[in-house]
Design a protein that fits this description.
Length: 126
C-alpha cells in the first residue's frame, strides 16, 4: 500500500480510495485530510510514490522543524504564564525582580531563535 508522510506532523498516511476511486489521505494524529481530485494531481501522486524514498528526507526535516517551532511556542506560553503569576510591582524583592527579568530575557531569546529559524528557512527556499 502506498503512503506519504503528513506534512504537518510527519506521521505515515496510508492512501485511501473514495467511492469514485480517487485517492485521499487522513491523519489520525493531527486530523488533516488531503484529497487528490484532479487528473494531474493523481499523476503527480503516482510519480511521488515512485520517488518516495528521495522525498522522505525533506519531509522529516520539515516535521523536525515544525516540532522545534511548536516547542518554542509552548515554552514561550509557559514562561509568560509564570510572569503573569509573579505579577508586577515596585515593591518586589530583589529575588523576584531577578526572576521576572530572567524569564522576560528567556522569552526574548526564544523569539529571537524563532526569527532566526524563519530567516534560515527563507534562505533555504532561495
Amino acid at each position: 500500500m502506498n503512503s506519504i508522510p503528513c506534512f504537518l506532523c510527519g506521521h505515515k498516511l496510508e492512501k485511501r480510495t473514495d467511492k469514485n476511486s480517487k485517492p485521499y489521505f487522513c491523519c489520525d494524529s493531527c486530523g488533516i485530510q488531503i484529497f487528490v481530485r484532479g487528473k494531474k494531481g493523481r499523476e503527480l501522486l503516482q510519480e511521488s510514490f515512485r520517488n518516495i524514498e528521495k522525498a522522505k528526507l525533506p519531509f522529516r526535516i520539515h516535521a523536525h522543524n515544525l516540532y522545534e517551532i511548536q516547542a518554542h511556542i509552548k515554552e514561550i506560553e509557559g514562561i509568560k504564564a509564570e510572569i503573569e503569576k509573579i505579577g508586577i510591582s515596585h515593591w518586589f524583592s530583589d529575588e523576584k525582580l531577578h526572576i521576572r527579568k530572567s524569564l522576560e530575557t528567556r522569552v526574548q531569546n526564544l523569539l529571537l531563535q524563532l526569527q532566526q529559524m524563519a530567516e534560515e528557512g527563507q534562505k533555504q527556499k532561495s
